[in-house]
Amino acid sequence: MAKDFLAGVRDSYDIVVIGSGLAGLTGANVLAKAGYSVLLLEHHYQLGGMATWFKRRGGHIFDISLHGFPHGMIKSCRKYWTQEIADKIVQLKGIRFENPQFSLETTFNREDFTRLLIEKFQVEPQAVNDFFDTARSMNFYDDQSMTTRELFNKFFPGRDDVVRLLMEPITYANGSTLDDPAITYGIVFSNFMSKGVYTFQGGTDALVLQMKDEMIRNGVDLRIRSLVEKIEVDKDRNVTGVVVNGKRIGCRAVLSNSNIKSTILKMVGEDKFDSDFVEETKAVRVNNSSCQVYFGLKPGVGFDYCGDLLFHSEHRGFDIDAMLSKDVSSRTFSFYYPETRPGSDRWLIVSSTNARYEDWANLSEEQYEKDKQDLCDTTIDCLEQYVPDIREKLDWVEAATPRTFKYYTRHMHGASFGTKFEGLKVSQTLPHQIHGLHHAGSVGIIMSGWLGAVNYGVIVANEVDKYLTPKEATV
Ligand SMILES: Cc1cc2nc3c(=O)[nH]c(=O)nc-3n(C[C@H](O)[C@H](O)[C@H](O)COP(=O)(O)OP(=O)(O)OC[C@H]3O[C@@H](n4cnc5c(N)ncnc54)[C@H](O)[C@@H]3O)c2cc1C
Q1: Among 72, 87, 162, 407, whose CB has the most other CB atoms within 10 angstroms?
Q2: Within this chain, do residues 209 and 269 fall inside the same structural domain, yes or no?
Q3: Which of the 8 DSSP states describes residue 89?
Q4: Same domain as 239, residue 180
Q5: Do 166 and 123 share a structural domain?
Q6: Are residues 124 and 148 in the same domain?
Q7: Which pLDDT tens digit goes with each residue over 29-87?
């Protein structure tokens, strides 16, 4: 008989959290700690959403999105998770750029970027300082009409090499382009520049396992392989429950960590919302998707130091179309040394490229397999310049495409980084439409990535708390 993943589940909870991405996990943990009964439902067989990993024959463990996040994760993990988790966050110091315009290595913080911009790129110190100060002072309530392109034109006119240095890593980190609002760039870039790039030592599996233990300690009822099909709403527009794996479970509030558009248009349904809100939701643009190639080396076999993150490109200037093209000319390599998982004897490499869902969605199975193989082959060709004897060292090679990301996370178009900026307003105003329905997850560029997702999970958990326990009632 098929296993019942909902065995023993209660008839109702204070809150149902749909999805176990970092925003869902953090929201569930904060709410359970506050004393609410919380049910977390995840359709996949493991927790974490994009913050995930997979194992392959021969003892390989590949991380999907553990490439780098800002220093702020330490504080967020300490406050909303555990000291033990925060203590495992360590800096990555070797960020490399290799392209036709420059070759350099940096610690990716303000001090080192200032030095590079002045000494290597010969930019006036005043312009560099003014740029950093402007970027750092940007916040959500600022003018949203200025684009990132205009921001760069203001400080570094005609300098496509400088734009490339400043923009390329952020595009890889959250899919943003020169046409997105400058505040999204300023906020994310400044988060990184404050102290550099960080990672979780021990791997995503260790992190998510520790999060799981903490949630169990706090009383979250966790269920995997549990697909929420419907969010139930009564005639007065109050959330009353969900339908998961065909079963109804009641609740006072829902925190959806599922894609914002699917939450509104599919799980609730258009007829439950004001028509202009439906139109606003439909107009939200999802962000781009990704391709990755995972390389596992033979046990104990390594390579000379290549840096931690390497932004490789054969293209001149910053060109978003080239970065998204299936004809790949730009790749980010993440080099994982045995220290990533202390005690391991494995060197691993993951190549990531931004990609368009449309380029992969409608291929025949035969063409799809052929194109994936081609992606693996061309990536090895490229990698050879950094790890010359890579072919003899390889034990496992495998590719993921936008189809893979869609399949595992159910994001529309396999979006890797949620939505463009306008998605944030829809996410934030969702509870004005339906009482008790909240969303936390990658939206609006600034609320995506590991840090954005964790912090947005906390912000929205506080909103759910306010909704369930209004201030007057607690006096
Ligand atoms: C290739 C790649 C590389 C990345 N690299 C980095 C990086 O280096 N640094 C960084 O900070 N960020 C990175 N990111 C982005 C980062 O991983 C994400 O922004 C973040 O993890 C998203 O968290 P989230 O809370 O929005 O939820 P998601 O991770 O999107 O998870 C949503 C969860 O909801 C579940 N779900 C959806 N619908 C349902 C349903 N109906 N029922 C039940 N469950 C459902 C999904 O299965 C999923 O588990 C990367 C992303 C990708 C794809």
Answers
A1: 162
A2: yes
A3: E
A4: no
A5: yes
A6: yes
A7: 999 999 999 999 999 999 999 999 999 999 999 999 999 999 999 999 999 999 999 99
